[in-house]
Structure formats: C-alpha cells, structure tokens
Design brief:
The chain contains 13 helices and 16 strands. It is of the alpha+beta class and 384 residues long. Strand 12 and strand 13 form a beta hairpin. The radius of gyration is 20 Å and the shape is globular. The termini are far apart.
C-alpha cells in the first residue's frame, strides 16, 4: 500500500444509493479528483470504418482488453480506480502509484493489437493537474446501480478535454519497450452470443448525450434521465440483458479471437482446452450456484456510463423510443444537448471475470457497433 494518501481517494468515496437524477442535482456529493492523479484514454483509431467493415466484435474485444489490462494491475496493487467503457476504447482515472505500470501494460497491449488485428489502439495520458490548469474540472461520485454494483459518475469537461488532447495530432505517445513481454489479460472472457431484447421489448437503443454548456450539464442530464424513468421505468426495467436470453457462443473462431486479444497469438493446445472447458459452462449455469451467477451478471452489466456525457444502452419499444426522441429533439433545438443514437435488434457483451462470486464485470454495447454508430451521428451534428 502506498504512503500517498491520495491513492485511496476513489475507494474512500461513499456510495450514493439515491436515484441517479437526484444525485446529479446534489453538487456537494461530488468530489474533485486529486491533481496528482492521471487520466488515461484508449481509443481505436478508425473504429468507425472497422465497424462499417463488419469488425464490431473485434472493436469491442480490444476495448474490453484495455480495461482488463488496467484492472488486473490495479487489483494486484489493491487499488480501486474509476473506469468508463466506450465501445471502441475506455477512459481511466488512476493514482500516481499505478501510472507507470499501467502505461507500460497498455504499450504492450497496443503492440499486440496492431500485430494481430491491424488496428491501432491509441493510448495516452495527461495529469489531472494539467486538466485543471486548462480551465476544466473533474467532479466524481459513486452511484449504486444495484445491490452489488456501483459505478463512477463524472461531471465537468475534464475527461472530454483529456480526450481531445490525447487524440490531437500533436500528442506523442511513448511506445515503450515491448520486446518479449505480454500484458496480463487474465480473466477476459467474451463467450456470449448476441443477446436479444428481453420478453415484451422490441429493440436495443444505444445513446450518447453531451450538454451544450458545462454549467448546465447536471440539469440537462437530470431532465433526460427523469424522462427515461418516466417512459421506460427505472433502470432495471430498461436493462437490455436478461438471463433467459443469454446463450453461450463457444465456436473455435470466437475463442480464437479472444485468445489473440488476450495472448497476442493462438496456442492450439490452450484453444482446445478452453473449448472443452467452456462446455462446463452449460452444466454450471444449470446449477443453483450458476443461476445465482447469471442473476448477478445482469446486475453487474455496465449499461450506463456518465463521464461528462451520458453513454447508455437500454431496451424498450419503438413507441417508447419515439417519445424519448421527441424530448431529445426539443432539447437539442433549444441548445441544451446534442445526441447520437443507434437502434439495433440485439446487444453484445464482453466480460472480465476474476472470480465467479463477486469479481466480475460485463461490458455492454448495442450490436453492430452501437456506441461507435451513435458517436458517428453525434460527431456529424457537431460539425454542422
């Protein structure tokens, strides 16, 4: 454990169990991230073209792998860090204790990704102090989204500013020495087939929303979330993952792709062993313990991210979406928000499973590159 008192900053934050729309309206429940922490961004360059060419599964897997690489280091050092899944990349806020090891691991992972998938995983970091100097803020709180799962909620323009800097042409990343090393991606699993909407639902909606004015961010997000609660019901009613729609997909092709992300290569003996082991899942999930795991999987599915913008995957009917879009269009016309939206017939899920009890997180996206497609729509509006 580090003697740096800031290392445990995020872990020490209280978990807020009130409704999210209420949390957003209570500024005193948010804390500023310490200036000696660092923001890290991973992002697949050209992800929109990759998705258009049918490589949405590769994009999701690679984004998930970057999260697993970071979380394995954090777990090994007994540090909790906030992170945000974005479909084609991720954002992390980490203490100084982790920054060197994390950036080295991401350099290794970047090299493996380029060699095995011919996709460039951009990785970069910026000190939080530099973000503050640039006139931006990062206010963070913990929100309990279920009985066993909590997520970070961030307000302010700090993470968007960091992303802009790291994605800029003038940013230089340090490739590091990646010879004869591999990142630790143990626990990464991506073995679920596309997941159809729950019973009585018709579609999956992937939605991105940014506020036009940072000063009105909380109010705008609160307005949208209250409307979603009104139209769709509380978060568990719009949860796109349901136990009865989960189906394992354990083809050699899927397992081979997962192995290339995780190990940087295919090891035939390990592939065959994994394939045989995966059949245990069919038996395990029919047991009492396995059914408990599946229920907790639904609860621990990461379907909402607020990192200075709303990123969410929800399920419902076309009529519910039409009513939501009516509000979004009105807010957009009033210069309150800008949004991007993608509708699909299924969701996709990749997983980090450290253990089958409480050490698992599941990252959800709309099928056919939901987040990437929604971001394309949003960026198109911002260019107008």
């Amino acid at each position: 454990m580090s003697t740096d008192s800031n290392t445990d900053f995020y872990d020490a934050l209280p978990v807020n169990k009130l409704r999210l729309s209420d949390l957003l309206g209570r500024q005193k429940l948010f804390n500023s991230v310490p200036g000696d922490w660092h923001v890290i961004i991973t992002d697949i360059t050209g992800s929109t073209n990759a998705v258009a060419n049918g490589r949405h599964e590769d994009v999701n897997l690679i984004a998930t792998g970057s999260i697993v690489a970071v979380l394995n280091i954090a777990f090994s050092m007994n540090v909790t860090v906030p992170f945000f899944f974005g479909g084609d990349g991720a954002t992390f806020i980490v203490p100084p204790l982790l920054i060197t090891k994390v950036m080295h691991a991401l350099s290794l992972y970047k090299a493996n990704t380029l060699a095995n998938f011919n996709l460039d995983l951009r990785t970069g970091t910026i000190p939080v102090a530099n973000i503050y100097t640039g006139g931006h803020e990062i206010h963070i709180a913990k929100f309990s989204s279920s009985a066993t799962f909590y997520i970070p909620i961030v307000l302010g323009s700090g993470l968007e500013y960091a992303e802009r800097i790291i994605k800029g042409k003038d940013y230089l990343s340090d490739a590091g020495n990646t010879l004869n090393e591999e990142p630790n991606l143990s626990g990464m699993q991506c073995r679920w087939d596309k997941i159809a909407p729950p019973v009585n639902k018709e579609e999956i909606v992937t939605l991105l929303i940014i506020a036009c004015k940072v000063s009105q961010q909380a109010d705008a997000f609160k307005k949208v979330l209250e409307k979603m609660d009104d139209l769709y019901g509380l978060p568990d009613k719009r949860q796109p993952i349901s136990v009865d729609k989960l189906k394992l997909k354990t083809t050699f092709s899927r397992l081979g792709t997962e192995m290339r992300v995780r190990l940087g290569r295919i090891e035939m003996f390990e592939l065959i062993k994994t394939w045989f082991t995966s059949f245990y899942g069919y038996i395990y999930f029919s047991t009492k313990k396995g059914k408990t795991y599946l229920r907790s999987l639904v609860e621990m599915s990461d379907t909402l991210v607020i990192d200075g913008r709303i990123n969410t995957v929800i399920t419902g009917t076309t009529a519910q979406r039409a009513a939501l879009v009516k509000l979004l269009d009105t807010m957009e016309a009033n210069s309150e928000i800008v949004y991007g939206l993608h509708v699909s017939g299924a969701s996709v899920m990749s997983c980090y499973v450290r253990n089958l009890d409480d050490g698992h997180i599941h990252f959800v996206d709309g099928s056919d590159g939901g987040y990437t497609q929604a971001a394309k729509m949003l960026k198109g509006k911002l260019k107008v």
